Please model this.
Amino acid sequence: MAGRKIGIVSAFLSAVALVVGLLSSMAVASASPDTAETQIRGLIAGQLSALQAVDAVAYGATYCAEYRDKIEADHSKMFTPPDVTRLEGANAKKLRAKIKEIFPSASSVAVEAFVQAVADVDQSEVDSAWHQLWASSFAKLSYRVKNVDVTGDSAEATVAVRVGSSSSNQRWELIREGQDWKDCTAPAEQETARGLVGGQGQQGLLDAPLTGE
Model:
């Protein structure tokens, strides 16, 4: 009789262990590493976050080794504020109009802050306002991943890109490098930050005639 009770208890404990094991497996599965598609969606969301933070290094890091250095260098150059002494004496009206042309999506607050910083010949304020011109422009940018097709260590994503009321569908080419997915779309085939929000970087401003009435 005692042996039968022991057997029943053992069977019960085994059943409990099996249930606990199954629940643990389910929990691990739910917390398991993301699928390729989820990782790719996260990468694209990370690209947008890097742009909205006006962070060329973080943005470049989302690209494959073939394009990473170029993307980072190009965006670093665009995001670098102009030397205020090269804008000294600029006509406020002309400067304001040029900034609005270069950054059509920027907030009026950022535009006015930049114009005032130039008038005050204040480099630190120019730096801050330049960052805000980009940040307020990228605030109107959004990505929506419509489809992801994965084939081994390569993939294609269709992304709806919207800036304000304008939108277009773009194709991202991606590859897996080690454990991470990276954007490997050739720069010539993908709209840059400049193309997306209209910013031309400091050269577009410095080359413009801004003095006189």
